[in-house]
Amino acid sequence: MCAVGQRSRQCCDKVFGDDNHNDTDPVPVKVTISQPYIPADADYTEVDAAIAKAEALDRDLYTEDSLKAVDDAVAAVVRGLNEYEQAEVDAMAKAIEDAIDALVRKEADYTAVNEAVAEAEALDRELYTEESLKAVDDAVAAVEYGLPGSEQEKVDAMAKAIQDAMNALELKPVVVPADYSAVEAALATIPEDLSIYTEESVKALEDAVASVDYYKTAEEQAEVDAMAKAIEDAVAGLELKPVVIPADYSAVEAAIATIPEDLSVYTEESVKVLTDALAKVDYTKTAEEQAEVDAMAKAIEDAVAGLVLKPVVLEGWYLIEGDWYYFKDNVAQKGWLFDKAWFYLDPTTGAMHTGWLLYDNAWYFLDRMTGAMRTGWVYDDGYYYLFNSSGKMLTGWVKLGDLWYFLKGNGVMAAKEWIDGYYLGNTGAWTYNAIGQWKQDSKGWWFGDTNGWYARGEVVTIQYVDYRFNAFGYWEQ
Question: Kind and range of the H or E element at 317?
């Protein structure tokens, strides 16, 4: 019997016979043919469940980027795969589930809340009652950050609560202070030198001064008047110490004034005589001991007269009659001199210059102690100045590192004032990121900046000029 599908000639001959053997009847044969196997469809149950989960999402709660990942995973589903491709189908379901698990929730908009909080923090708390300020503080403390977009109304309500509390702020009542003019007048009568009075009487005065309380109101004026009376009585009660007449040391001081400042140019022996005479000066002598004091003065005068100069070779710095000179080969140098630093020597006398110097239309500063030319920042007589590496004084806007400073026409560093719309703080650096400008309404002129600040109840320096603003922020012209 031929196998299913066998097509050999021999097989066919055996079944149906050969043309050469037609004398025999053919023998019937039963042939069984197998059908090919058709795979079953893949199981999309988990895919369909994941898609249903994705379609049920509240899309307002999540970011667009994370929702796109879900949409891309759903769009990537391929239908019609069979059971041999079940792993691919399961991977599609997992991709959708993973994208759903990775969704990023949107946060509510806190802009109004942040603005309200910033406004609350900028309040001048000295102006309002504690109770009304507490309502503002409570509203700020009640802010809950990180809420999703679905709770925007709750976030908006937080901002409104802060604004409502600020709108309800109550100004403190005005307290009229007591009149302290009598106290100030009494204080003005206190002698500058209290060392000449007895300790007991001075203590009574100090106690009266220490008892002054500057926080009394007009209703407590009687107490303030009593403070003034106590000071007046204590001043009147000051008792002088017993007088001891000291000796007259004017001759001693005059003799000391004749001592040369630079003793290094004199021999050690003659200088020792002078230092011994100085060591014997006793400033505790009385008028009855005046002869001893006069002898001290005479000893100093004799020692000064007896000073013997060393052989002189002038080279380098010398202090002569209060001024420093620089000699080279016994010749006093003049003009600019470099000796570890730059110095300026008077072009006529050769004396070292200190302090401010106008040279070739530029200002320089020579250290008041050492005479060395200064560069960088210099603090002199209560003001800061800036000098470049060549020692020249700078003016106008200057940037140092990441910070800007402004030096006025006279070189003084601007500080705690507005220049060209920019505020320069205590250090003189511009660090306040806002622009100031004058504004006017029907009530008058006022000055504020782009951050919402405005001057009120204070004096503000703007472009070199001091302006006073009242409690409502208007310029008092």
Answer: strand 316-320
Query: CA 325 to CA 335: how far, in whole Å?
Result: 11
Separation of alpha carbons 154 and 110, rounded Å: 10
Residue ranges in the chain modelled with pLDDT below 70: 1-34
Angle at 136 between CA 132 and CA 138, to 5 degrees: 110
| SS3 assignment for 289-312 | HHHHHHHHHHHHHHHHHCCCECCC
Q: Which of 386, 365, 384, 382 is nearest to 374 (CA)?
A: 365
pLDDT of residue 30: 65
Q: Phi and psi of 440, rounded to 5°? A: -140, 140
The model's pLDDT over 215-271, given as tens digits with 9 standing for 90+, comes to: 999 889 999 999 999 999 999 999 998 878 899 999 999 999 999 999 998 999 999
Asked whether 431 and 424 are in contact (CB, 8 A), the reply is: no
pLDDT tens digits for range 357-403: 999 999 999 999 999 999 999 999 999 999 999 999 999 999 999 99
Between CA 217 and CA 221, with CA 219 as vertex, the angle to 5 degrees is 75
Residues with Cβ within 8 Å of residue 378, at least 6 apart in sequence: 365, 384, 385, 386, 387
Q: What is the pLDDT of residue 370?
A: 96
Q: Which helix (H) or strand (E) holds 345?
A: strand 342-345
Is 449:423 a contact under the CB 8 Å cutoff? yes
Q: Where are the beta strands (DSSP E) in 360-430?
A: 362-366, 376-380, 383-387, 396-400, 403-407, 417-419, 422-424
Residue 474 confidence (pLDDT) = 92
Place of tokens 């500080």: 415
35 Cβ contact list (under 8 Å, min separation 6): none
Residues near 181 by beta carbon (within 8 Å), at least 6 away in sequence:
none
Among 436, 435, 416, 419, residue whose Cα is nearest residue 427: 416
Beta carbons of 208 and 194 less than 8 angstroms apart: no
> What's the chain's length in residues?
477
Instruction: Note every long-range contact of 351-358, with CB atoms under 8 Å and residues 24 or more positions apart, other chains counting.
Output: 351/323, 351/324, 351/325, 352/323, 352/324, 352/325, 352/326
Sign for the CA dihedral angle at 440, 446, 449, 453 comes to negative
